[in-house]
Automatic annotation (TrEMBL):
The gene is map. This is Methionine aminopeptidase. The keyword Hydrolase applies. A divalent metal cation 1 binds at residues 131, 142, 273. Its cofactor is Co(2+); Zn(2+); Mn(2+); Fe(2+). PANTHER family: METHIONINE AMINOPEPTIDASE (PTHR43330), METHIONINE AMINOPEPTIDASE 1D, MITOCHONDRIAL (PTHR43330:SF8). It is an enzyme of class 3 (hydrolase). Substrate binds at residues 113, 213. It comes from the Bacteria. GO terms for molecular function: initiator methionyl aminopeptidase activity; metal ion binding; metalloaminopeptidase activity. Its EC number is 3.4.11.18. One of its GO terms (biological process) is proteolysis. A divalent metal cation 2 binds at residues 142, 206, 239, 273.
Length: 288
């Protein structure tokens, strides 16, 4: 059991206990880790996040319409910047802790946080993750997609991209109201390891909505029934990073910004990410 001495869930003073209060307090009293009330978004906040999520999806749609062999990853960044300008959004990655671009473009063995460059020219058979976060009126959407450049690649890379998407879908299916974050990680790890893939442990999903990164951390490995309890109104990403080989990673020494994460054995890596809202009936996708 997880110690929960700080009484994370606080009921509203002077208000009768709601059904949500009763369920959360039950598990809190059992010693389980529960969210703070601040992690549960209000209906007004959810509506703002939903709009940001739709815009974020639209940005990735714009990338999907132009990505092809022969373009540079910088051209992807240009499309994302133009989309944000036209839709009165802000690309959240731009200048975030020194990140120099508006979007992450991670090619082949780059696990995540790949920096767009004029010199990175996409070739047939490359696999590329495009990870976009934007904010609109103070609300955030976050998602990433994999692209197979030219529509064909090696059977090994194709399988990696497919299985990684399955990991996201299986993780989402495991996310249940009043279940636990460990349920998500367990389901993803179990599926990935069937294929002898490595589940990256140094990076994770996260809460999102009022900031680009919020509590809780969403690990993509773990045990059922562990971690924080999931409560309706929570908004978070699931974004498994799956390596063809080892789960370990390192920072590219040639990256002057210290951002690009590479698979430990430099074998290909894949990632898919959606933003989810937890409801009483399971998750709703807000950005994909």
């Amino acid at each position: 059991m997880v110690s929960n001495k700080k009484n994370r869930w606080r009921c509203l003073p002077g208000q009768p206990l709601t059904e949500l209060d009763k369920k959360v307090l039950y598990w809190q009293n059992k010693g389980k880790l529960v969210p703070t009330r601040e992690m549960v978004k209000t209906p007004e906040q959810i509506e703002g996040i939903r709009i940001a999520g739709k815009l974020n999806t639209g940005c990735l749609d714009a990338v999907a319409a132009m990505i092809k062999p022969g373009i540079s990853t910088q051209e992807i960044d240009n499309v994302c910047m133009k989309y944000c300008e036209e839709n009165h959004c802000h690309p959240s990655c731009l200048n975030y802790e020194g990140f120099p671009k508006s979007v992450c473009t991670s090619v082949n063995e780059v696990v995540c946080h790949g920096i767009p460059k004029k010199t990175d020219i996409l070739e047939v058979g490359d696999i590329v993750n495009v990870d976009m976060t934007l904010d609109y009126n103070g609300y955030y959407g976050d998602a990433s997609r994999m692209f197979i450049i030219g529509g064909e690649t090696t059977p090994e890379k194709e399988q990696l991209v497919r299985v990684t998407k399955e990991c996201l879908e299986i993780g989402a299916e495991a996310a249940k109201p009043y279940g636990f974050l460990g349920d998500i990680g367990h389901a993803i790890q179990k599926h990935a390891e069937k294929y002898h893939y490595g589940v990256v442990r140094d990076l994770c999903g996260h809460g999102v909505g009022l900031a680009m990164h919020e509590e809780p951390e969403v690990l993509h490995y773990g045990r059922k029934g562990t971690g924080m309890m999931l409560v309706p109104g929570m908004v978070f990403t699931i974004e498994p990073m799956i390596n063809m080989g080892t789960w370990q990673v390192f920072i590219d020494e040639d990256d002057p910004y210290g951002w690009e994460v590479i698979s430990g054995d430099e074998k290909p890596s894949a990632q898919w990410e959606h933003t989810f809202l937890m409801t009483e009936n399971g998750v709703e996708v807000l950005s994909y």
